[in-house]
Amino acid sequence: MSLGIFDDHTTAGCFAIRRLFSAFSARLSLKRSTTTKAQRNPHKEGDDNGKSVSSDLPSTDAGSPLMSAVMSTVGAVVDTLDTDLRALSLQIHVSKKDHPELMFEEHYAHQVLCDFMERHGFVVTRHYLGLQTAWRAEFIHVSGVGVAIAVKAALQTYDVPGTVVLLGTPGEEGGGGKAMMLERGGYRDMDVCLMCHPTNGAVDSVSLGSCLAMQSLEAEFFGHPAHAGNAPWDGTNALDAAFLAYSSIAVLRQQIKPDHRVHGMVKGCDSAPNVIPDYVKMRWTVRAPTKGQLMVLLERVKACFEGAALATSCRLKITTDIPYHDLHQNSALGKSPFP
Predict the structure, then answer these.
(1) With contact defined as beta carbons under 8 Å apart, do 16 and 149 qualify?
(2) For the whole prediction, is pTM greater than 0.85?
(3) Average pLDDT of the residues in 37-55
């Protein structure tokens, strides 16, 4: 059995560990009871009226002595990692003033995290699936960072067969790194996937809510430069187009639903104040509860760009990134009991 974790922020994530190992345990209980039944009566069926023969092995149900021991092991490992994980987090995030890394430019974080996982006994594949800042850390036992290491310790301690995979997923800020890895088969060999992400809430809590579907896009306006003092009539102002687009979307927000979102920024231009700007780039993110609602809202946003380009005689280029569709959670796994 293979279980995957994709860890966005290097977090211990105890709730993820517990659900991971609960999934392992449920699978083991099923295999143990089925195997025992086959061993006792390999040829005859129906003696137990379709019920599984109970295993003589220790129970792996939540709250059982074995599961309590497993959780103690996991908790102890997380505690021992606490100082190292905090240092790792600070090494990445505090150093961002020296290593600002967004959307497929996470080269420093890629190196630091891969080195850390290798030191903890994982086989690491750098630049995974052709993405320069993606990575895969795998531990195979024949029988977020802190999550994988703690589960690894539990597998070894209790001789549980399985594979733990930690995926470093780049392009969090709208680049669609997870979607690209999915399309390239990055999750193909996994039975269960858990995402570790810091958020508000009770200790050991888990979120089963969906995430808004999201589409990131860039709008580029191309105009014509001219001297703003001598011959402004010869210019085509790309900055005017950007401001018109921004204002149009601000007005649009009054007519969109409360759970829809549109937000953006102007990337800036290098023009001097006395020169008509001939180029401006804007980056926007559009969100809605479902993929269908997202596509409708996206077309309304694009219309604001098109109207601004038409009004200012600018040329418009719209580039869309890989979209994030609405998230479908596994409620059965998420609501599973644990000690």
Answers:
(1) no
(2) no
(3) 38
